[in-house]
Amino acid sequence: MECMPRKAAILGTGSWASAFGRHLCHKWERVVLWGVDEKQVRSINQTGTNPDYLGRIVLPPNLRATLDLSDALVRADIVFVVVPSQVVRQVMGKVAASGALPPGVPVVNLAKGFEVDSLKRLSTVIDEELAAVAPHPVAVLLGPSHAEEVALELPTAVVLSGQDGGDWAHWQAWISGPFFRVYTNPDMPGVEFASAFKNIIALAVGMADGLGAGDNTRGTLMTRGMVELSRLGRALGGRPATFAGLAGIGDMITTCISRHSRNRNFGEAVTGGGQSPDELLAGWVQVVEGVEMAKAALKLGQKHEIELPITKQVHDVLFSGKPPRQAMRELMERELRAESD
Ligand SMILES: NC(=O)c1ccc[n+]([C@@H]2O[C@H](COP(=O)([O-])OP(=O)(O)OC[C@H]3O[C@@H](n4cnc5c(N)ncnc54)[C@H](O)[C@@H]3O)[C@@H](O)[C@H]2O)c1
Prior knowledge:
Blueprint: E1 7-11, H1 15-24, E2 30-34, H2 38-47, H3 51-54, E3 63-66, H4 69-73, E4 78-81, H5 88-98, E5 107-109, E6 114-115, E7 120-121, H6 122-130, E8 138-142, H7 147-151, E9 156-162, H8 168-175, E10 180-184, H9 188-210, H10 215-235, H11 240-243, H12 246-257, H13 262-270, H14 277-282, H15 289-303, H16 309-319, H17 324-332
Helix pairs in contact: 5-6, 9-10, 9-12, 9-13, 9-15, 9-16, 10-12, 15-16, 16-17
Nicotinamide-adenine-dinucleotide binds next to helix 1 and helix 5.
């Protein structure tokens, strides 16, 4: 008889960790969030809310939070990683050092990004950090899934993509719910790259919106953004069918058009002119993954000799002080060519 999982551990206490944990509580007996921020942990346990990250949404009684990593990991049937991409290595290092991760337990990453220093996918980072302990199947769960909407139980669909050897059909069933549909896709490189890359295009759309551009511009940036995503994604081993799926075009559309998208919103704020991107970022409560990803993607593009015009302009606005209006003009004035070139 199939063993019924009981406890899910979630690393992170931010927007997505809280909303995803709330969703899991419909099916799971216990969900434990681990965090490093005392205020968030106290608020979740004492008031059943996480106001800085999830407004007035009420969290269920079978969800609790802890500052003690071993407390979260002990007897967990599965572990979800829901922290900013640039701290995944540090957090997984702590997990390995804790000695509390039960052997063979699957580890599923929900963060969207690449490690900018090494240009590695986050599943690789997790593998490397867990190499010293018993083997753990690693997967990613990604796709168009704004925390604010999952918390309101609005229909959402995502992709679970795992390494060979994991019983992912089993976990697909345990993660799915009436408002949260999980598909599987074996193309981990494609799913991870697409989910990370689309944030750069959302920054570009936000900048265009801030400059007063219209729907023609939005459609163009998303479409030409998909060209950049597909070209570089294929060079990294991803499959075209993945880019046409939820983690590709699905997440691209959602992130570029949504009022919940912090990447789109950040791009728009950059055009405000009052503060530099650095100053703005310092005051931004939630992580804006596209900023670091713009650096990583540009380096990956150079390595694989793939031109990424939109990515380059976003990068230059964020890191070289280029005015967004000039970036837009340079994109429009590029040498004319065939659409397929
Ligand atoms: N918010 C969403 O709608 C959403 C949806 C899908 C995927 N994601 C992805 O999930 C990841 C997390 O996003 P989020 O929206 O929950 O971010 P967030 O900014 O809301 O929360 C980040 C959390 O990480 C914690 N954290 C920061 N540094 C840490 C460290 N060094 N060690 C341990 N914890 C640390 C913070 O305390 C906070 O609890 C991102 O990669 C994001 O792209 C977010």
